[in-house]
Structure formats: C-alpha cells, structure tokens
Design a protein that fits this description.
This protein has 174 residues and is mainly beta. The protein contains 1 helix and 9 strands. The strands form 2 sheets. A 5-stranded mixed sheet has the order 1-3-8-5-6, with no helix packed on it. The chain has a 4-stranded antiparallel sheet with strand order 2-9-4-7, with no helix packed on it. The longest helix has 11 residues. The relative contact order is 0.24. This is Complement C1r subcomponent-like protein.
Length: 174
C-alpha cells in the first residue's frame, strides 16, 4: 500500500533524525500538555445547551483553568443556569472556583456545593447577560497534594440565547 510504506512522512518514527520536520507534532504535544489553560467560544442558541467543567461527571483535575465565552446572536442575551455544582469549598472561593463575568454585571465567583456551609455555590440562580456575551472561567489551581480531588465532579450548566426584547402580545407576528 503506498500510504503505509516505511518512509512515509505520516507513519515514520517520531524519533527519526532523517527529517527534523517530523518532530513538530511531538513538540506541539509537549507544549499542549505543559499548558493546561484552555479557552473556547460557544454560540448560544434558543434551545438550551450543556456546558460542563473538564472531565464532568468524573472528578476534575487540579492545575487547570478554562475560560468559555458564550455569545448570542444580535438582539439576544445569554442565559445560564447551573444544574449541578460540586467544587472544592474554600473561604472566599480562593481555591477552586467558577467566575462569571458579563457586561453590565460585576464578576461573581462561586465554589462549594449546594447546602455547603463553606464556600459560595450559585444555587438555582439564573444569570442573564445585559449584552450578547457571557464569560465563565473554571479554575482549579495546582496544589502540593494529589492532582485529582477524587471528591468533586465540577459543574453542569445549561445556557441559551434569550431575546433582549420579549414580545408583549404581538398580534402581527407570524
């Protein structure tokens, strides 16, 4: 088979010195492993969609941070509600936390679990952006202990685009 011959660029050994260009993917993999910060941009739709912490529903790992920006189409805001929330509790949420920011509202930081005396869980609160975007940052700083908590599974949230201008008895609407 021509695509699988021994000297093929794609299937050659990554340790080969015959072509230094073959090492690029190994270098890229190492960089991605060393930099646990991740980010993404999601487009909100009118039907609710899920957003979860890394590895959810399995316990999340320590030493990572991810930022997700949720954008809504023109004329819409972003609505976010947590369905499940289980982060390591700490005083003032200075350890593991979720921070929500959007234009028109102060950043809000949450941690802990529903019913926990320590921390600040979001409960069933609804977050609606005044603009067309909302940012959620999940942070689980590395600790001197094990990199996995084995206790806390993170969060599950639902987000969707909601009209900034709800219709009020529109009789000419299709």
């Amino acid at each position: 088979m021509p695509g699988l011959r021994r000297g093929n660029y794609l299937w050659g050994s990554p340790h080969s010195t015959s072509c230094p260009g073959k090492m690029w993917w190994l270098l890229l993999w190492g960089v991605l492993q060393a930099c646990p910060t991740q980010g993404s941009v999601l487009l909100a739709q009118q039907l609710p969609q899920q957003l979860t912490s890394p590895r959810y529903p399995e316990p999340y790992l320590k030493g990572q941070e991810s930022t997700t920006v949720i954008e809504a189409p023109k004329g819409y805001a972003v609505r976010l509600v947590f369905q499940e929330f289980d982060l390591e509790p700490s005083q003032d949420c200075e350890q593991d936390s979720v921070t929500i920011t959007a234009s028109g509202m102060d950043p809000q930081r949450f941690c802990g679990q529903h019913g926990s005396p320590l921390g600040n869980p979001p409960g069933q609160r609804e977050f609606v952006s005044s603009g067309s975007s909302l940012q959620l940052t999940f942070c689980a700083p590395a600790s001197s202990e094990n990199k996995t908590t084995l206790l806390h599974k993170g969060f599950l949230a639902l987000y969707q685009a909601v009209s900034k201008y709800p219709s009020q008895g529109c009789t000419l609407c299709p």
